[in-house]
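Annual report, structural modelling task.

Input specification for the oxidized coenzyme A complex:
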Amino acid sequence: LLPWPRIDFSKFGDVEEQPLQRIRNIASAHLSRSWAFIPHVTQHDEADVTDLEDLRLQLNRDLVKDGTKLTLLAFLIKACGCLLKRFPRFNASLDERGDMLTLKKYCHIGFAAETPQGLVVPVVRDVAKKGIVEIAQEVAALAARARASQLAPNDMQGGCFSISSLGGIGGSAFTPMVNAPEVAILGVSRSSVQPVWDGVAFQPRRLLPLSLSYDHRVIDGAAAARFTTELARLLGDFRRALL
Ligand code: CAO
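The model returned the following structure:
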């Protein structure tokens, strides 16, 4: 590789230098390693979350008195927890030589959280054993601790799979980077109401863009397409989480 160019940018105009904060430095090292070692592919899909959003808003009206808010992220964590049981290769890690896969019998899911100090990924443990309310409360507590720089190292360890939700901000799709040594990450963009043909007429439906990046050494494209298809079906009819 060519050495990184050393350029005196002040020759071209005014500049200001800002050292990267510690969290950003740590994240940079992890991101660079993932980028260099993992052959990434991203599978895009859409889920019809019209009924799920109706259910979420209805439940939130009931839960408001308890101070609990069910976020879409909590449903996504639960849905991915269900699917990781059905797709064990997505709940695995490859060793450093790339020839031994460790399949995990537990299911801990991390979520990307933006903080003033940079990106962190707190982990919700044993999501398959938890209900949506408990997951939503844990996400809210972890996100608040993340923003207050109060996460312990243990809060960010042991993740099996990550979710990066940018839907609250905007965008229609992106390619998230796998959080090594995990092998897949789900990116979620902003849902919007679109006309969907039901065979007779166009119906207004709320569609959620999904972007699943995966380590192609471990996961084949067909498996990734099946994963996002199943995820879209589950989000389209959350009763499938009972199966
Ligand atoms: N589509 C449309 N609207 C969405 C949405 C989606 N996919 N996801 C969330 N929203 C809306 C919610 O409905 C909510 O609106 P109201 O305030 O009107 O109820 C608002 O956006 C905020 O959503 P939320 O409270 O559910 O929070 P969140 O799940 O969007 O975000 C968290 C929580 C921790 C993920 C967020 O604070 C954060 O840090 N996001 C950035 C993650 C990130 O940086 N990822 C990139 C990593 S790689 O660099």
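The longest strand covers residues 202-215.
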